[in-house]
Amino acid sequence: MQRTVPVFLLAASLVCTAACTKTKSGGSSGDQSGPIKIGLVTKTDTNPYFVKLRESAKAHAQAKGAELIAVAGKFDGDNEGQVAAIENLVQQGVKGIMITPSNSTGILGALKQAKEQGVLVIALDTETDPKDAVDATYATNNVTAGELQGKYVKATLGPTAPKLLMMDGTPGGTVDEQRHRGFLQGMGLKDGDPAILGTAPTNGDQNKAQAAMENLLQRDASVNAVYTLNEPAARGAVAALTAKGLAGKVAVGSIDGGCQGVADVKAGKYLATVMQFPKKMAEQGVDAVVDFAKDGKKPAGFIDTGAQLITDKPLPGLDAKDTAWGAQNCWG
Questions:
Q1: Separation between Cα atoms, residue 246 and residue 174, nearest integer Å
Q2: Predicted TM-score (pTM) of this structure
Q3: Are strands 308-311 and 272-275 parallel, antiparallel or unpaired?
Q4: Average pLDDT per 10 consecutive residues for the chain, totaling 332 residues
Q5: 205 phi, psi to nearest 5 deg
Q6: In terms of C-beta density within 10 A (0-12 exposed, 13-18 middle, 19 or more buried), how is residue 259 classed?
Q7: Residues 274, 77 contacting (CB under 8 angstroms)
Q8: Which residues have a Cβ under 8 Å from the Cβ of 62 and sit 6 or more positions away?
Q9: What gap in Å lies between CA 169 and CA 79, rounded to an integer?
């Protein structure tokens, strides 16, 4: 499919979090007067997780005397919007671009061109494919995060055979695939296992997750376990379960560890969540770009920023923190 992004559509998709001044084009060859410019491209500008990532990056950039220019796709999966954003940021003369890729392969050409212009490229939260398409990645090990959720749900069920529904993310998404795979590993299951009663894409959206769960429950309401890609998906799934009178009867886990998610766990809406640390990702990414701008030093490889199981119902053999700890550290 040919990529064409009208000027007005691109303008509508860009969300600036710092004053965007005019610069000469050409990435590192542009006007280098003034503060170091850092680009941030997230999947969306509305998901609370990416809002926290953006706010943390902006605050840390300001503390470092740098300027953050934050842009986002119009929706999770908007590859063309992200490609256009990368090209725009290079023209604005950024020294580094931090990106949470919607499509781990669809942006490779734009990233290659940015690197050829002398721009440091860092993936946050989501790896590219191949991984060395960026200079470095700061992210949660999403397979591990999914596995922690799966192990907890399995331990909750004990000897009871699982009857599982899966609230997945965006088809083809790297994070979505990794968390899904990790969860099944934690459960000791594989795709196609008869224990899986159904799966549905949710795009990590609460309303879509609720509708998907309602549809799956119409087919089979014998469910006793639910996987959710993230906390908005968990809230949607729980709303549907509650409407069916199944709240508290189904083991539901999630991933994100946002402050709202921790509060949901404390309130008993779902049993556990796996906390990520987007603030750490953002700050370490900003530090890397500032260091690169000053001395040319480049980070390399995958930097795991950690994952922590949060629950008020700990189970033997699983390292967990309670919701009091979670409230103090949510998305730290």
A1: 31
A2: 0.81
A3: antiparallel
A4: 37 38 37 84 88 96 98 86 95 97 89 97 93 96 97 98 97 90 98 98 95 97 97 97 96 96 97 96 98 96 96 97 97 82
A5: -110, 135
A6: middle
A7: no
A8: 18, 68
A9: 16
